[in-house]
Amino acid sequence: MSLLTASAVDRQTLASRWNADGPLVAIALCAAWCHTCREFRETFERIAIARSDAQFIWLDIEDDHEISGDIDVESFPTLVVFRGDVPVYFGVSTPQEATVTRLIDELASHAVTARDIPQEIAALRETLRGAKPKAP
Fold first, then answer.
1. Does 3.40.30.10 match the CATH number of domain 8-128?
2. CA angle at 81 for the pair 126 and 15, rounded to the nearest 5°
3. Are 110 and 117 in contact (CB under 8 A)?
């Protein structure tokens, strides 16, 4: 599977595959003006192609603000990873391919539970799946 974006077609594709027992979903929160993000996009795409067992989404927090909402991104790239409906990672990542691949592999292969994941992340999941976010 290649990298999905916030386009309506990609969101329909994601919604049809994302469920409680679904694959790992990795979301890169980036910005078009960020030089590191522009360089990281090719890396993230290669990881997405190599990991057909997971979904990968590229989300520009400014251009796609109606989807990303009020997530507090302190640095780029920031990754959000879900295992099914459970957010298991939210944090800044180095843009190196080996580091991100190792993180994705680790999250996919071990039982990880969500810890200190902001409420806005659950809202992001619901918005990407095409559902209205649930009130806190």
1. yes
2. 35
3. no
Q: Which residues fall within 8 angstroms of residue 132, CB to CB, at 6 or more apart?
A: 126
Each residue of 29-58: pLDDT tens digit? Answer: 999 899 999 999 999 999 999 998 888 988
Question: Is 0.85 topped by the overall pTM?
Answer: no
- Do the strands 86-92 and 78-83 form a parallel or antiparallel pair, or are they unpaired? antiparallel
Which residue pairs from 59-66 have beta carbons closer than 8 angstroms and sit at least 24 positions apart in sequence? 59/5, 59/6, 59/27, 59/28, 59/29, 59/30, 60/6, 60/30, 60/31, 60/32, 61/29, 61/30, 61/31, 62/31, 62/32, 62/33, 63/6, 63/32, 64/6, 66/127
* 126-129 CB contacts, 8 Å cutoff, 24+ apart: 127/66, 127/67, 127/69, 128/6, 128/11, 128/14, 128/15, 128/18, 128/27, 128/57, 128/67, 129/14, 129/15, 129/18
Cα separations (Å) of 86 from 36, 70, 99, 121, 135?
28, 19, 22, 10, 17
